[in-house]
Structure formats: structure tokens, C-alpha cells
Amino acid sequence: MDKLELLSALADDIRVCPLCRLAETRTLAVPGEGNGAAQIMFVGEGPGEQEDQTGRPFVGRSGKLLTQELLKIGIAREQIFITNIVKCRPPGNRDPLSDEIAACNDWLSAQIALIEPKFIVPVGGPSLKTLVSPKLGITKARSKVYRRDGILFIPILHPAAALRSPTTMEQFLEDLSNLKEFLNREISDEEITPIEEPKAATKEEEDGGTLSLF
Ligand code: SF4
């Protein structure tokens, strides 16, 4: 099987996944979609109502904003792969719980391993904490570059937050402008922000800790 077929088989498995409580309340799981040979993956927090109804990621109001603004910086949805840290909608759009994120991690890890992106864009705080470090907050980490497992991570604010506040909208657009700039040139080692690792695997850190990508 080629990469696309493997991603498609993975998506079929995700659609019937029973691994956490979100399986009981979802309408449709949302595996993610896009280019199997993408250099860039966008990873959000979880499906919302529209995504749950359609089985497609980032198709609601905030997803449309992201799609529209990405096009303005020269990135079409067909060029990227876009997914979430949890593939099923948390009821009422609550934040996904740490055990749900942990249960879903193998799916995301498998997608990353297949796609082998050069860049991952964590969209919003929960994705940043899961993929890069639980010690990071999106407000300070946005538009910086981190490296983990050979992949460059460039976090941006979530478009849903941008829709709630004009100031956040400005910052979201600034993040996309910075992202465009990073993607169009070489990034030197000096520009990569070191990741402060959690000291010891306490219970609390394990529960909220960064999940291994592979
Ligand atoms: S959120 Fe992830 S782990 Fe939970 S049921 Fe959906 S696909 Fe499975």
C-alpha cells in the first residue's frame, strides 16, 4: 500500500474507534484530511459541531476563517494535512480530557509517522501542550519555533479565539504572517526556542504531559 492508502486505512480504523468515552457521543469521528505528502500538518484541539456532523476537520466558522486566511498566505487546504489531537467531538465543545488525548495519541502519532511532515503547526493551546510541552502556554509560545523529534513546530492561536476578540484576531493574523515568513526561508538553530522538559514524571505531569509522537 502507498502512503495515501495507508492514511485512508488509518482513517477507516479511526471512524470505528471505541478507545475512549467520546466514541459514545460522537456522530462521526473526524480522522483528518489533506495531502499525504504534505510538508506541513496543522493540528487543532478537537472537532466541533459541524465537524462532528460532516466527519471533516475545520469546516465550521473557525475552520472557514483558517482556510480563508491560509489561502491569503498562499497555502491551500489541498497542500496540507489537517487534523486534531482528539478525533471525536467532546460533548458541548468542552476541552478534551487528558485520558481522551492519551487514548487518541496513537492515531495522531501514526498519521505523523506516515506523513513525515517538516513542520507541524499546533493550532491553539491544548495542541501545543500535547505536541510540544505541557509547560508551554500559547500566548507566549505563539509564532516561536520549537523542534522535537526532528520536526519544527510553529504554534499559532486558534481561529475560534480570534473570532471572539478583535485583539486576538490581530494576533492570529500576525501568527499566520510569521508562519508564512518561516515557511519561506531556512530557520537557523539560533531561532529555535529550547523546550523546557518536565523534571520528573509525577502523576500530575504524566496526566497532562507531552505525549510521545512515535
Ligand atoms: S477521540 Fe480518539 S481515542 Fe477517543 S474514540 Fe475518538 S478516535 Fe478513539
Tell me what you see in this structure.
With 214 residues, the protein is an alpha/beta fold. It has a single domain (3-185, 200-208), classed as 3-Layer(aba) Sandwich (Uracil-DNA Glycosylase, subunit E). The chain is 44% helix and 10% strand. It contains ten helices and six strands, in the order ααββααβαβααββααα. It has helices spanning 3-15, 22-25, 49-54, 61-72, 98-115, 125-131, 138-141, 159-164, 166-183, 203-208; strands at residues 33-34, 40-44, 81-84, 119-122, 146-148, 151-153. α1 (3-15) packs antiparallel against α5 (98-115). The longest helix is centred in the middle third of the chain and has 18 residues, at 98-115. The protein binds iron/sulfur cluster. Residues 14, 17, 19-20, 22-23, 29, 86-88, 100, 103-104, 107 line the site of iron/sulfur cluster (SF4).
CA radius of gyration: 16 Å
For this structure, what is the CATH class?
Alpha Beta
CATH topology: Uracil-DNA Glycosylase, subunit E
The percentage of residues in β strands lies in 5-15%
Low-confidence parts, pLDDT < 50 over ≥5 residues?
Answer: none
The count of DSSP E runs of length 2 or more, i.e. the number of strands, is: 6
Shape: globular
CATH homologous superfamily?
Uracil-DNA glycosylase-like domain
What does the largest sheet look like?
6 strands, mixed
Termini separation comes to 21 Å
**Which molecules are bound in this entry?**
iron/sulfur cluster
Q: Please count the helical segments.
A: 10
What is the residue-mean pLDDT, rounded to a whole number?
Answer: 93
Taken together, the total number of domains comes to 1
Helix content: 40-55%
- CATH architecture grouping: 3-Layer(aba) Sandwich
